[in-house]
Design a protein that fits this description.
- The chain is α/β, with parallel strands linked by helices.
- It has a single domain, classed as Rossmann fold (3-Layer(aba) Sandwich), CATH 3.40.50.
- The protein has 4 helices and 6 strands.
- The strands form 2 sheets. Strands 1-2-6-5 form a 4-stranded parallel β-sheet. Strands 3-4 form a two-stranded antiparallel ribbon.
- It is globular, with a radius of gyration of 16 Å.
Length: 150
């Protein structure tokens, strides 16, 4: 369909996508792994006054991703470890490959993330767009994992 964001992100097709992910939920766990790796590198290489490793890991996830157990297992681990370098954008459009999420999914995703120790913000889209600067806001806070439900 010539989409800039195909159903399964592929790093060779989509600019900015660093990891090709397979089954739903795997990309979510990949992001947590990247956050863990960054924290390890911070511990090895950062020195006082020289924070050479200090970036954020941004991930996009969907309803289908969050219907898979691996996403919640890794979200729980991220919250437990206090990975303050994770920023997830959750496309809460209530659509899956099978149709509306109401067919098989009725969890309150925001409460589940909060229970796992994440900071959660619900973002309302105005006129079909969002100011991307809004998602950079937590870069100064660094208190815990962050999820934006859009």
């Amino acid at each position: 369909m010539h989409s800039k964001t195909p159903g399964h992100p592929e790093n060779i097709l989509t600019p900015g996508v660093e990891i090709t992910t397979g089954p739903l939920g795997q990309g979510f766990a990949n992001g947590v792994g990247m956050g863990m790796a960054q924290k390890h590198l911070e511990a090895l290489f950062n020195r006082e006054g020289f924070p050479v490793i200090d970036h954020f890991v941004y991930c996009i996830c969907s309803d289908g991703d969050l219907m898979e157990g691996v996403s919640y297992e890794s979200a729980s681990l991220a919250g437990h470890l206090g990975l303050d370098n994770l920023i997830y954008l959750y496309d809460d459009n209530q659509v899956t490959i099978d149709g509306p999420t109401s067919l098989a999914f009725s969890e309150d995703v925001t409460k589940r993330f909060e229970a796992a120790g994440w900071e959660v913000s619900v973002v309302e889209i105005q006129n079909g767009s969002i100011a991307i600067g809004f998602f950079c806001r937590p870069a100064t806070a660094r208190c815990c994992c962050t999820a934006f439900c859009i």
